[in-house]
Specification:
heterotrimer; A mainly alpha (213); B mainly alpha (115); C mainly alpha (808); A: 213 residues; mainly alpha; 3 domains; globular; C: 808 residues; two-stranded antiparallel ribbon
């Protein structure tokens, strides 16, 4: 504490903090770029960058597995899907649809108010308590949190948690896991159904073509 | 500024970044007329929330020990990622269907179900 | 002994019930066309007779025939009482004099009669009583199925089952028409044809069994409530059997009449029951016993005639007590009145059941039933139930009540006898004869002749059922009831004719005076002797003796009128005469059996004392059953009447006089009948025209039906019509119009309510809902981006609400 109070100007530069600021600013910038960009293709690009930067934040928070998944699934899977969508619909009139000014004002107002609400909340619950000496009353999970952080790979524990084995700081998630998997299957089937070509129309057109010829 | 660099990263930092992403996503959904733009906004919103989950579950951040999710936060954010993928797949299928039927991706034109 | 007797009689009693149930459920399937039903019913009643006879033999074996061994103690008892008048100080003075008189008579009697056979017995009589089954037991009210067995019970059992057995056999022959489909020639349908219906052989025997069960139930009943139940059962059986040919209007009305008239009597009986139970707190005759057999509550008889009072009738303490509770000024007097009311009430029921004077009208009409029914129900047993109950209840009757009974009986016997003179329907003559004889019994009981009345009950049962069955045999042969269409049948059906002659001789009391006679001789002589004795003691009422004697003459006249018209002379209707034939054996065998009993049932068995009527075993047995304390003189408190002890009537002088008078009157009647209908010295037509007004008066049964029609039925109908008119004119009108007004008012009101509130509310809700929908429609723009804004705004609103709204 003395260190922090005394060295306002000569405080050691924290590498962790620097990296966080880098990725954080990157994330915010690209997110805003997505908002303010009018071209849908560019929006997709900025989004990729924003999400990739987010994965960096995940790593910095010690969530190595989640960060990896963020990269693999989001950046590598979901956004590629979006890009496909962009490419399939990217015809001239739709690449940059203009939004009315009134909508902008309303959205900005609402978004601003939301931000004004969220940021104070972040300060309110994010800061450590001023009198952080009372450790005896903490639960086991809180005790883990207050102890010195140790960088341990999380993948094994997450896998066990998903298989329903509760650990020190993880509960069993077998049932949600199963539900999610079923859900995924249903979604894939549904998506395939929704997105398939309309065979009937094709057949009719072919028959018309045959009749015409 | 140096102070900003030297002090350890706290929960607040993450929450602020998450909030910015969230708000950006929400504004994106509210302003983009292109259906794909709306989808991108959704992704931003989900990521903002995800970031918060991870931050709450992290051991490496300065924070109030009362708000501690542990690995549960990471598992939930994994679920969110998976659900987002599923959502994206379905939404994209819907968008493509809409595009096939109406030859447009303007969400303002999709108001046939209005009251 | 008690358990053997009670079980024997229980079995004899329940066998007809079993037969009834069997026939009820399986009747038509027993043999061809239900022929087996008759065997079931007959078997049951014959077994019952065998059991009753066994019980009688056991009884005689245990207690002997005569009550002689009581005689000494009785006389000493009386002497004791005479010597210690102090003991009667507690009793009212009248009772005290009674005992003195009794003692005198007892002494005089034992002097004059060396071989006194139990007369004047005052010691306790032998009676077994107890309960088989308790129906309900509230604290005060206990209703049981119980028994009260004394010599009278056993004699009645034997008599009833014997006669019923004979009648069952007889009915097997008489009712054989009912085995197949019957065409009833007396019922004409609207299309002019006669009614055709299936036979009712089974049903007939079913009712007979039920009737026997009910009658035996009255006889064995150990308490007055049980008596009342079976009393009503007998009534309903009588209703069924009178209305057996239900399609005939006359039969159904006769059944209704019998039932309704009996209700009048039963109303009085219920009043009597209420008076008894309300004051005495028990229904039981002898007393209520606990499981160990000790008497826990003394019965009605013991309350009225306590052993401590030497069985003298005294107003029960309980009645005086209840009178006191009612706030009577003179509880002794009011309690006595209560006792009189109870006695009169019970007698009222007996008047209905035994068809005594005011309520006698149903019995002649009841002849609409089949003749076996008449024989069983309306001559020998059911109407005897009333007399039996008077006899059973005798200890409770005060002299005032007994005087009433005597007057009623006297009126009945004379009136019915006179009506019988002019009746031409053979069964109606017998019906009025029955009425008359029942009157004799009541009269005998009323003048203090308990044994005489009971003896006449038994002898009459035999010869009257015999007479009825003979008449049934005649009707069976000639297919008519009218004596004017008969005549000379003696040659065609000799057995019937001579058995009926025996019955006629028995009923007129034929015999050689002071020597020997048929059964009726003994009973009627005893009645007349007691009546004479009573008349000597109560000069104000001696006219009743002469009425009874006149009744005896009339009895002789109409009975032989009947016999002569039916069996003697030339046939009046040749076609019917040619058709006639003797009845089948199953029908005449019972006649012979009954004729035997009609002759010998009261004959003295003791050869040495053959001329002494009291030496008859029947009389001796009845003497055993005489209620305690009724063998002595006693006087009434309210009315100036003195009931003479019965043994006084055996006094040589009285008995000789009575016997001579009875013989003379009977001979007079018989000779008159011979003159008119046999020797034809006098022409009945001339006599009739000479006494035309009297004939018309008698022919119309003293105008009783018309009288009741005028004073009861017409006013009732008039009231009914008035009330009906009032109903239709006033009440219906009022209600109709009220309904109309109410309807129009409610219609309007309802419509108003509907429109204003119900419809209005519904419409208002619908309009509001619609308006709300329209209003809510506006945010539903279908614009996706707007929805996003709404979501965000909603989130913020919720946050703000949670932060500032709820936490505060």
């Amino acid at each position: 504490m003395g260190n922090r109070n005394g060295g306002r100007w000569m405080g050691e530069i924290n590498g962790h903090t620097v990296l966080f600021l880098f990725f954080g600013i990157l994330t915010c910038l690209f997110s805003l770029a997505v908002v303010f960009s009018a071209n849908v293709v560019r929006m997709a690009f900025y989004l990729i960058l924003a999400l990739a930067a987010t994965s960096g934040l995940h790593f910095l928070a010690g969530a190595d597995f989640v960060g990896t998944m963020q990269l693999v699934l989001y950046v590598g899977g979901t956004l590629v899907l979006l890009v496909f969508g962009v490419m399939l619909t990217a015809q001239n009139p739709f690449i940059s649809l203009r939004t009315a000014g009134g909508d902008w004002i309303v959205a900005a107002l609402v978004g601003g108010i939301l931000l004004v609400i969220l940021v104070p909340v972040a300060f309110q619950i994010g800061l450590p308590p001023q009198d952080a000496g009372d450790i005896e009353g903490l639960t086991q999970r809180e005790a883990v949190a207050s102890s010195e952080p140790v960088s341990v790979p999380t993948a094994t524990r997450i896998g066990l948690g998903l298989l329903g084995v509760p650990g020190d700081d993880v509960s069993g998630y077998l049932l949600p896991f199963e539900i999610i998997s079923i859900h995924l299957l249903v979604v894939l089937v549904g998506a395939a159904y929704l997105a398939r070509a309309k065979r009937k129309v094709v057949v009719r057109q072919e028959s018309q073509n045959i009749a015409g010829s | 500024m140096f102070d900003l660099l030297s002090q350890p990263v706290g929960l607040t930092h993450y929450l602020i970044v998450g909030a910015v992403m969230f708000v950006a996503g929400a504004v994106c959904m509210a302003t983009k007329r292109n259906a794909l733009g709306v989808l991108m906004g959704i992704e931003l919103v989900l990521n903002g929330a995800n970031l918060n989950f991870v931050a709450f579950g992290s051991n490496f951040l300065e924070r109030n020990p009362a708000y501690q999710l542990g690995l549960d936060g990471q598992i939930i954010s994994l679920f969110v990622i998976v659900l987002a993928a599923a959502e994206a797949a379905v939404a994209l299928a819907i968008v493509l269907n809409f595009y096939n039927n109406h030859s447009t991706v303007d969400v303002d034109r999709a108001d046939e179900l209005k009251g | 002994m008690e358990s053997i007797l009670s079980n024997l009689l229980l079995l004899a009693w329940l066998l007809p019930l079993a037969s009834f149930c069997v026939i009820l459920f399986f009747g038509p399937r027993l043999g061809t066309a239900g022929r087996g039903a008759a065997f079931v019913a007959t078997g049951a009643i014959v077994s019952g007779f065998a059991l009753s006879l066994t019980a009688l033999i056991l009884w005689v074996g245990a207690h002997g025939i005569s009550g002689a061994h009581h005689a000494d103690s009785a006389d000493t008892h009386a002497a004791d009482k005479a010597l210690s008048p102090d003991s009667q100080v507690a009793v009212d003075p009248a009772a005290a004099t009674v005992h003195l008189v009794a003692a005198d008579h007892g002494d005089a009697h034992s002097d004059s009669h060396g071989g006194d056979h139990g007369h004047g017995r005052v010691g306790p009589k032998v009676a077994y009583f107890g309960d088989w089954y308790t129906l309900v037991d509230f604290d005060r009210l206990k209703i049981t199925i119980g028994y009260y067995i004394d010599a009278l019970t056993i004699l009645m059992f034997t008599m009833v089952t014997l006669i019923a057995s004979c009648i069952h056999f007889y009915a097997m022959g008489y009712m054989h028409d009912e085995l197949h489909d019957v065409t009833d020639h007396e019922v004409t349908l609207s299309n002019g044809e006669h009614l055709k219906r299936p036979g009712r052989y089974c049903r007939f025997f079913q009712y007979l069994s039920l009737f026997c069960f009910s009658m035996l139930g009255i006889v064995i009943a150990g308490n007055i409530a049980m008596t009342f139940v079976f009393w009503e059962l007998v009534g309903i059986c009588s209703y069924f059997l009178i209305g057996f040919y239900i399609e005939r209007k006359s039969a159904s009305t006769a059944a209704n009449k019998a039932f309704i008239v009996n209700r009048v009597g039963d109303f009085g009986m219920i009043i009597g029951l209420m008076a008894l139970w309300g004051s005495l707190g028990t229904f039981s005759f002898g007393g209520e016993k606990n499981a160990a057999g000790d008497i826990v509550k003394s019965g009605m008889f013991t309350q009225a005639r306590a052993e401590a009072d030497h069985y003298a009738l005294k107003t029960p303490e309980a009645m005086v007590e209840s009178a006191r509770q009612m706030g009577a000024e003179d509880p002794e007097h009011t309690g006595h009145v209560l006792l009189i009311v109870a006695g009169l009430g019970i007698f009222c029921g007996c008047v209905g059941k035994s068809a005594q004077f005011p309520l006698h009208v149903w019995l002649p009409d009841a002849m609409e039933g089949p003749t076996p029914v008449s024989a069983l129900v309306h001559s020998a047993t059911m109407v005897a139930a009333g007399v039996f109950l008077v006899g059973r209840f005798y200890p409770m009757f005060t002299p005032e009540v007994l005087l009433t009974i005597a007057i009623i009986g006297c009126i009945t016997l004379f009136m019915a006898a006179t009506i019988a003179i002019t009746a031409t329907d053979i069964k109606r003559v017998l019906a009025y004869s029955t009425l008359s004889q029942l009157g004799y019994m009541m009269f005998a009981l009323g003048v203090g002749g308990w044994v005489a009345g009971m003896l006449h009950l038994i002898t009459h049962a035999f010869f009257k059922s015999l007479l009825f069955m003979c008449s049934g045999s005649v009707i069976h042969a000639v297919h008519t009831n009218e004596m004017t269409q008969m005549g000379g049948l003696r040659r065609k059906m000799p057995i019937t004719a001579y058995t009926m002659l025996v019955g006629c001789l028995a009923i007129i009391g034929a015999g050689v005076p002071t020597l020997v006679g048929l059964s009726g001789y003994y009973s009627k002589d005893a009645i007349l002797a007691q009546a004479l004795h009573f008349g000597k003691n109560n000069a104000a009422w001696d006219v009743m003796f002469y009425v009874a004697a006149a009744g005896a003459a009339i009895t002789a006249f109409y009975m032989f009128r009947l016999w002569f018209m039916t069996f003697i002379g030339q046939p009046r209707d040749p076609s019917r005469y040619d058709h006639a034939h003797e009845s089948p054996r199953v029908m005449w065998m019972p006649l012979v059996v009954l004729a035997f009993f009609a002759i010998f049932v009261a004959t003295p068995a003791d050869i040495e004392n053959f001329t002494d009527p009291t030496a008859s075993p029947m009389v001796q047995l009845l003497e055993q059953a005489r209620p305690d304390g009724t063998g002595i003189d006693f006087s009434g408190q309210l009315a100036a009447v003195m009931m003479p002890a019965e043994h006084g009537s055996h006094d040589e002088e009285i008995h000789w006089a009575a016997g001579m008078i009875a013989f003379g009157t009977a001979m007079f009647g018989l000779l008159l009948a011979c003159c008119l209908y046999w020797w034809r010295i006098l022409d009945p037509e001339e006599v009739r025209s000479m006494f035309a007004p009297i004939h018309r008066f008698l022919r119309n049964k003293w105008w009783f039906d018309e009288l009741y029609d005028a004073i009861f039925i017409r006013p009732t109908l008039f009231c009914g019509r008035c009330i009906a008119q009032f109903d239709r004119g006033a009440i219906d009108w009022l209600i109709d119009h009220l309904a109309i007004w109410m309807r129009s008012f409610t219609t309007g009101f309802d419509r108003w309510i509907d429109h204003l509130f119900v419809d209005g509310l519904i419409n208002w809700v619908a309009q509001r809902t619609y308006a709300l929908g329209i209003w809510l429609r506006k945010p539903q723009t279908g614009r996706l981006r707007q929805y996003v804004v709404f979501i965000v705004v909603g989130t913020m609103a919720m946050y703000l609400l949670a932060t500032f709204g709820l936490t505060n």
